[in-house]
Amino acid sequence: YETLNLIQPKFIDLYSECLEKHFHPKTAYERGMIFSHQGNNIDALFDIKNVIDWMEANNQADLLSSNLYLQAG
């Protein structure tokens, strides 16, 4: 867990930089999962909600899984 705690902030920075340039649902989901594992539930929910909203707005709703809604819950 020590190594995981060291690399998580670097991944958050990398994902955030990528999302600033271009939104991609997989990147937002991955960042949201890191936030969730850190206990940062507000930011995790924001990212997961953005993924759900993007998929619904871009006719990708059929790819949404119950697991994604479970993560948001």
Notes on the structure:
With 73 residues, this protein is mostly helical. It is 79% helix and 0% strand. It has helices at residues 2-21, 25-38, 41-57, 66-72.
Jot down its keywords:
73 residues; 79% helix; 4 helices; mainly alpha; single chain
Could you give the topology of this structure?
Layout: H1 2-21, H2 25-38, H3 41-57, H4 66-72
Structure summarized in a few sentences:
This protein has helices spanning 2-21, 25-38, 41-57, 66-72. With 73 residues, it is mostly helical.
What are the segments in which pLDDT stays under 50 over at least 5 consecutive residues? none
Q: What structural class do helix, strand and pairing data support?
A: mainly alpha
Main sheet attributes: strand count, strand direction, barrel closure: none
Number of strands: 0
Mean pLDDT, as a whole number? 89
**Shape by Cα distribution:** globular
